[in-house]
Write a structure and sequence with these properties.
heterodimer, A: alpha+beta, Rossmann fold, OB fold (Dihydrolipoamide Acetyltransferase, E2P), 6-stranded mixed sheet, 23% helix, globular, B: 548 residues, 2 domains, 80% helix
């Protein structure tokens, strides 16, 4: 179960995009995007080509904006220049780890080498141990092989430790890319010196990994967050992943941010059918349907729609007639004929209904607080 | 017409041999020693003892999973000496093989022309055979460039999987997809070789072959005025602008098509044995023709003349001047490209995609007119400046004179700098390099930042260094602009040697050639060593102290 997140106004901002453009005119990949990325877990969703990767690339500085500004990592301070970096200075703000779609792995280097390179060997850091062990470890003087092994084990890569990346499969590369990004941001406070929490940016992470395995890897990410206080920004096409992992959601369509806010707000009160669909199955009722008086319609999630069979004859006057009904995974898809003769598709939980039965449909509002548990 | 026809024929042949060269180079880079690169990093960062697993873990957190890790660590154990010998041996082998493949590109044209000059003169009554010799030398030399461009240059934008899919689709479309990658690489390689052959001067001059560059140089010696020179240079310039412009448009369209998420397919593909052997045979032939035999001719005489040249001491001055002029030209070209790119980026931002590259390309195109025209223009400019201001800054002061010839070289070197810059940018592991930069910029502890810096240098910085070093190398041996612009008492080595080369081979001249090649090579290696030292050793103290 996720922790309860702070309200939109309370959460600290980690990045601000101000009228950001990438490209020009109608073909631009981002069109004047203004957005605050807040601390916690932010999911970026949208269709293919909507601009999700471009947005993430701009956040990590891989691409430069063509217009507007990206102010980032906890403040608006200037980044350290080449000479400053040469003399060992670093940017203020937290470390940013990045797992791009392509992986961005270092060819010619082994899996173990990737982790050894990025872990902060001079301070306390998060090390995924599991089994309830202590996960804050002083890495200075610690055996590197062992620490790296623990990281690799947590992502199922321990058997591949000495393999060069050129010989890894797509799924293995995806896992290595994510574990490297986490390792980069695993450092903790040391000697009373305060560190800004790290930010991990993941572009469609673990997409080529089985769902069951991915759930375990996300558990590691959650533990990393719990220990380091780090933030995650990720893009995805999976609604269940957003609901399970994210506090905030940013919806992008055709290079524009069409909605941003708390995940549960979009889940409970989607403003349009398309936006609501980013978080999974949805029944959409236009104004006037089912007594919906709201302008523009209303979205109802399947678990909040109760469909009850009405006993006795009476047909259209009593309710709607079931035309077809079948189970689709966890929900039932039922097509009903409305009193006016037109048909409507309903998604609901419960049993498959008998064709020809008369049904009534209710929206259950009282279990609103239990939505996460239902999911 | 001779120049254009020859450039087309050599360009096409270079594409064919370039495929083989690219395969050999890829095989060498894939199979020799590169897998151990991170092992070397491990050695420097903490030694092999770092991977030894101790029985006493100290912390219960760390104890979990130790046994499993021990098994994996077994293969990493080994003597330090054994590792060192293997590493040094591998590196030596890689250097030898890579040197063998790219060697023909590394020997200056002036040296190749000098070594084969006597043979060329003896074939003066057989122009056909002389042309074959000249063409063979060009192909041997620039076939390597073609292979290099094919391997490291921009690709067509279709992934390996895409090519496979195209192949299984069949038909003309499938064939197009299947060959589009090689086709686009071939086009860019052809254009690169065409330009190099078309503007070649030194070998043609020393072998007595007719080219527009030789004609222009001879005419200038005979008193050609600037206007006539400009008129006569219009068509060669036009040809080059069309070729370079076409390449640039293609490149920019490709960049727009691929976007920033372009990434390399890091899985290694097997290289066919037959093509590998054919490529290897060509590399051997090219090496013998362009490096081996010229080196032999030059070295056998050089040993005897070396003592006289060193004893005389005057040639050191020539080498010094060459180095200074080339350095001014290189630094100027790099700065100009960076400044123009920065300015254009500021001005055209959000208005024009790829506009920076187009403007830089237009600025760089000045250099395509060749060193002679640039030199003549600058000499006339200097005269105009003196008449206008009465100042003799560019002819009366050492700094002004150096600035003039350095400026000339800068303009001549601009196109090469721009093209090499595009090639360097087209490398396809940009995401990996950016992650290294992110570690360098914001790593949690100094060790991470230092590693990020080193990784950035390995993935990106060193590539840019070699781009600059190759431009310096070209500037060091540049002849035509230097011949017009060098100040009295400041003769560059290339001009001195070229003037003597017309009298045929001699022991002293061979010694000069060897000295100049060695000196230039040493400067490039010294610069590389200095940069690496700054990055790896000197930085140790700046990054000392763990956190922050």
């Amino acid at each position: 179960m996720k922790e309860v997140v702070m309200g939109k106004d309370e959460a600290k901002r980690i990045w601000r995009l101000d009228e950001v453009w990438k490209g020009k005119g109608d073909g631009a990949r981002l069109k004047g995007v203004s957005l605050d990325v807040r601390e916690g877990v932010t999911a970026v969703v949208g269709c293919s080509g909507a601009g999700k990767s471009t947005l993430l690339n701009l956040l990590v500085g891989f691409e430069q904006v063509d217009g507007g500004k990206v102010l980032g990592c906890g403040g608006d301070e200037k980044k350290v220049g080449f000479l400053g970096r040469l003399f060992g200075r670093r940017n203020k703000g937290g470390m940013v780890g990045w797992a791009p779609q392509g992986g961005g792995l270092w060819s010619g280097m082994t899996v173990r080498g990737h982790l050894e390179a990025v872990l902060p060997w001079s301070c306390y850091a998060f090390v995924p141990v599991g089994d309830g062990g202590r996960e804050i470890v002083d890495l200075s003087g610690r055996d590197k092989g062992e620490v790296v092994g623990l990281w690799l084990k947590s992502f199922g890569l321990e058997a591949l430790a000495d393999r060069v990346v050129g010989r890894l499969s797509g799924g293995e590369r995806a896992r290595l890319s994510v574990v490297r990004a986490l390792g980069m941001c695993s450092g903790l406070d040391w000697g009373g010196m305060h560190r800004e929490p790290g930010i991990v940016v993941l572009d469609e992470p673990l997409v080529s990994v089985g769902k069951g395995d991915a759930r375990g890897y996300w558990e590691v990410i959650r533990r990393w967050r719990g220990v380091t206080g780090g933030n995650v920004v990720f893009s995805t096409h999976f609604p269940e992943l957003v609901i399970r992992e994210a506090d905030w959601i940013v919806c992008i369509e055709d290079g524009e941010v069409v909605w941003e806010g708390e995940v549960m707000e979009l889940y409970e009160r989607p403003v349009s059918e398309k936006l609501g669909a980013y978080l999974g199955e949805l029944n959409w009722f236009e104004a006037g349907e089912m007594g919906v008086g709201e302008e523009g319609g209303r979205g109802v999630r399947p678990e909040k729609l109760r469909v009850e069979v009405v006993e006795g004859e009476g047909g259209d006057e009593l309710g709607w007639i079931v035309v077809s009904s079948e189970r689709v995974g966890a929900v039932v898809e039922t097509v009903v004929r409305l009193s006016g003769g037109e048909q409507k598709r309903l998604l609901h939980v419960g049993e498959v209904l008998e064709v020809g039965a008369t049904v009534r449909v209710f929206v259950v509002d009282h279990c609103e607080m239990q939505v996460k548990a239902c999911i | 017409m001779w120049s254009g026809g020859r450039a087309v024929v050599v360009g096409l042949l270079a594409v064919v041999v370039g495929v083989g060269v690219a395969r050999v180079l890829k095989w060498v880079l894939n199979n020799c020693g590169l897998r151990n690169s991170d092992c070397g990093m491990k050695m420097r960062r903490g030694g092999c003892e770092g991977v030894r697993v101790s029985g006493d873990h100290g912390s219960p957190a760390i104890g979990v999973g130790g046994d499993a890790i021990k098994e994996n660590m077994g293969s990493m154990r080994g003597g330090r000496l054994q590792w060192l010998i293997r590493r040094v041996g591998m590196l030596g082998l890689v250097c030898l093989l890579v040197g063998g493949v790219v060697g023909p590109m590394g020997l200056p044209s002036l040296v190749v022309g000098y070594a084969w000059g006597d043979m060329g003169v003896s074939l003066v009554r057989h122009p056909g055979w002389n042309e074959v010799l000249y063409g063979g030398l060009l192909l041997g030399r620039y076939g390597v460039v073609s292979g290099f461009v094919m391997l490291f240059g921009p690709r067509g934008g279709t992934s390996e999987a895409g090519v496979w899919c195209g192949g299984s689709v069949g038909g003309i479309k499938g064939l197009m997809v299947r060959w589009s990658d090689w086709l686009s690489r071939g086009v860019i390689a052809f254009c690169a070789v065409f330009l190099l052959v078309f503007s070649e001067f030194e070998i043609a001059s020393l072998l007595g072959r007719p080219t527009w560059t030789v004609w222009l140089f001879d005419a200038q010696v005979g008193g050609l005025n600037i206007l006539k020179a400009l008129v006569n240079v219009v068509w060669p310039l036009g040809v080059q602008v069309v070729v370079v412009g076409g390449c640039a448009v293609w490149y920019l369209r490709r960049e727009g098509r691929l976007g920033a998420n372009d990434n390399t397919d890091m899985r290694k593909k097997k290289v066919g044995v037959v093509s590998l052997m054919l490529g290897g045979m060509w590399c051997l032939f090219a090496f013998v023709l362009v490096v081996g035999l010229p080196s032999f001719y030059v070295m056998k005489d050089a040993a005897k003349g070396l003592g006289r040249v060193i004893g005389d001491g005057r040639f050191w001055d020539d080498l010094w001047f060459s180095g200074v002029y080339a350095m001014i030209g290189t630094v100027g070209a790099v700065l100009l490209l960076v400044v123009v790119r920065g300015l254009v980026g500021k001005v055209l931002r959000s208005r024009m995609s790829g506009g920076g590259d187009v403007v830089i390309g237009v600025v760089s195109a000045m250099g395509l007119s060749g060193g002679l025209v640039v030199g003549l223009l600058l000499v006339n400019g200097r005269l105009w400046f003196e008449r206008l201001t009465g100042s003799e800054f560019f002819s009366g002061t050492t700094f002004g004179e150096w600035l003039l010839i350095g400026g000339g070289l800068m303009v001549v070197l601009l196109p090469m700098g721009w093209v090499l810059g595009l090639l360097a940018r087209a490398r396809r592991d940009r995401q990996a390099a950016h992650i290294a930069k992110m570690m360098w910029r914001g790593g949690d502890d100094r060790g991470v930042r230092r590693f990020g810096m080193r990784m950035w240098w390995k993935r990106s910085g060193s590539v840019w260094y070699w781009v600059g070093a190759y431009v310096f190398f070209q500037g060091f041996f540049e002849l035509s602009a230097s011949a017009i612009l060098y100040p009295a008492g400041g003769t560059p080595a290339a001009v001195r040697m070229y003037n003597l080369m017309h009298y045929g081979q001699s022991q002293v001249l061979s010694a000069m050639v060897v000295l100049s090649v060695v000196a230039c090579g040493l400067v490039m290696l010294f610069g590389r060593g200095m940069a690496a030292w700054l990055m790896f050793e000197c930085s140790r103290s700046w990054y000392r102290g763990g956190v922050r």
